[in-house]
Amino acid sequence: MNAMAAVVRAPALRQKVQGADRLAHFGLLLVAVLLCVGLLAPLVVILSKALDAPEGSTTSGVGNFLAYLASPGLLTSLWHSVWVSVLVTVIVVPLAFTFAYALTRSCMPAKPVLRAIMLLPLLAPSLLSAISLIYWFGNQGLARDFWKALGFDGIYGAPGIVLAECFASFPHVLMILVTALATADARLYEAADALGTSTVRKFFTITLPGARYGLISAAMVCFTLVITDFGIPKVVGGNFNVLATDVFKLVIGQQDFQRGAVVALLLLLPAVLTFGVDTLVQRKQAATLTARAVALVPRPARGFDAAMTAYCLLIAALVLAMFGMAVFASFAKLWPYNLAPGLGHYVAGLVDAELGDAMVNSLKLAASTAVIGTVVVFVGAWLLEKTRGMDALRPVVRLLAMLPMAVPGLVLGLGYIFFFNAPANPLNGLYQTLPLMVLCTVVHFYTTGHLTMVTALKAIDGEFEAVSASLKVPLYQTFWRVTLPICLPVLIDVGRYFFVNAMTTISAVVFLYSPDTKLASVAILNLDEAGDTGPAAAMAVLIAATSAVVTVLFMGLGRLVDSRTQRWRAPAR
Q1: Does 281 score more than 70 pLDDT?
Q2: What b-and-e string marks burial along 249-264, b requiring 16 or more CB atoms within 10 Å of the CB?
Q3: Domains and CATH numbers, the chain
């Protein structure tokens, strides 16, 4: 009887497994469609828009395209963008490398505190640093005389952009370099010590070669972040034009969409180039930490540790001065005549300027992006890594998942105007709505979440799926009972990443909002344009405080999840 029952159940089990496979294929197709609609189609429309002939023009679109590329104004903006980005990269990478070296190779005290301070800029919009510089070195800044003594006429222009971008890009570079320096084999240093190698030679023959790929990646990321940033040049750029502000002026100020598309394509090229270089470097990277490697533990050295502590305290003090100035100015009643603390700027921003709704919209956007983005990215990565079939579609989805890293937010937002605002598009009703901004934000930050999920899924042995298949267990049951619980900590980290970035993003959504869907980060830009720098600082601080609180909540949720679902990771007693 048992044998007959098994025979009867076998077709039902086989049918359930086949149904799960078809559902997985359908899900993979949906992810591909989402990325095509949210990423590929807007980029294609930008290209076609740049090549279109303007209305009333007798020449071809290609001719106008080439003519505008040769215009002196565009070449000036291009040159400004390139040399400012190179200068910031040259400044930030050595500074961040030294800080990362101190965190990983010294025994200085308070490492977690110093690292947390350096990550503060990630919690606020990039233009917070620009606003702080105005209060420090502007026409009524506290240190304006010191700034003039250095030979600068004012903070507006290239000096302000360079300083603010250094502050904004430092934590991104630091995270990469800390990761690069954390993986080191102590046996190499022990062998060098046995041969009597000097400290300087060990640095140049072991440390730098081991971290060279991290250095290249950090430089590429820094260059791309600066050349595509919009908020900082808009606030302190003055008459110093760069490509990012040119796009905004052409589209919003002059309604010249054709030339705006041309500049957007130019803005896309450096990002694609740096992304290609970074990808090539990663392919050539060899493992520096093998199964037999011994983790490097720094040894106490009084002089070196003291020097590293002094250096890190200096950099941390500069970051706190920049961040703290924005907080201080947001409470000052009347800068610089009455510096007594008060809530006037917060009232002016949230009540008088009616930006309370903008803050609520930002919270809605961030929460929706955190939930939807995490689910979509995780399911997409799982379908790519843990399912079979549809082999022709998989490389396309992988390429589309990596492409957002090379697309600046300003370019993506402009593509959304051209694509979703077209009257013939059936999705036209989404234009200037919160769901469209959620889609744009998810796509904009898709690659980092995808790579994080793929890394976590690759760490799970494929034997789980093989055993499940041999036992005729549907794929979704293995996903729900095994894969999801193991990956919960990573899901929380990705959700936090989506939330914070959605709260602080400006460039990707600056073209997509309406009066009813205005965001707090965009409202800061509008307040600064109107001369209300105090309320703008208050809104930036409010965004940073919200991001900090939510980050703490995510950390608490992560610890709760670890205690409930990750006990198997603890070593056996």
Answers
A1: no
A2: ebbeeeeebbbbbbbb
A3: 15-70+351-564 (1.10.3720.10), 76-325 (1.10.3720.10)
Altogether, the residues listed in the chain come to a count of 573
Q: Residues 232, 233, 238, 242: what is their CA dihedral angle, to the nearest 10 degrees?
A: 170
Return left, alpha or beta for 342; rule: phi > 0 is left, psi -120 to 50 is alpha, else beta.
beta
Q: How far from 232 is each of 236, 244, 455, 485, CA to CA, in Å?
A: 6, 10, 33, 41
User: How many angstroms from the chain centroid is the CA of residue 296?
Assistant: 30
What angle do the packed helices 520-529 and 484-504 form, to 10 degrees?
20
CA angle in degrees (0–180, nearest 5) for 155-159-160: 50
Secondary structure of residue 332 in the 3-state scheme: strand
The answer to whether 216 and 91 are in contact (CB under 8 A) is no
Strand spans (E) along 218-310: none
CA neighbor of 448 nearest in space, from 388, 396, 484, 407: 407
How many CA atoms lie less than 13 Å away from 95 in the CB half-sphere?
A: 21
Q: Which residues contact 34 (CB under 8 A, 6 or more apart)?
A: 376, 439
Distance separating alpha carbons of residues 283 and 388, to the nearest angstrom? 25
Do the beta carbons of residue 244 and residue 267 sit within 8 Å?
yes
What tens digit of pLDDT does each residue of 441-463 get? 999 999 888 877 887 777 665 55
Q: Looking at residue 376, what is its pLDDT?
A: 93
Q: Whole-angstrom Cα distance, residue 148 to residue 154?
A: 7
- pLDDT tens per residue, range 183-216: 666 677 767 767 777 677 777 777 777 778 878 8
Which of 361, 350, 346 shows the shortest CA–CA distance to 516? 361
Nearest-5° Cα angle at 453, 405 to 472: 135
Q: Which of 105, 134, 102 is nearest to 118 (CA)?
A: 102
pLDDT of residue 451: 79
The two structure tokens encoding residue 482: 């095994």
- For residue 294, pLDDT over 70 is answered with no
Q: What is the pLDDT at residue 163?
A: 93
Burial class (CB in 10 A: 0-12, 13-18, 19+), 327: middle
Residues with Cβ within 8 Å of 110's Cβ and at least 6 positions away in sequence, in order, are none
Percent of the chain with pLDDT over 70: 82
Rounded distance between C-alpha atoms, residue 499 and residue 488, angstroms? 16
**Taking all residues of the chain, what is their mean pLDDT, rounded to a whole number?**
81
Kindly state the tokens that stand for 435.
């769901």
Tell me the two tokens of residue 457.
């899924």
Q: Please give the pLDDT value at position 5.
A: 47
The SS3 assignment for 333 reads: strand
Q: Which of the residue ranges 8-17, 55-64, 227-236, 403-412 has the most confident prediction, judged by mean pLDDT?
A: 227-236
What's the predicted TM-score (pTM) here? 0.81
Which two tokens mark 123? Answer: 């919690």
Token couple for 148? 């003039």
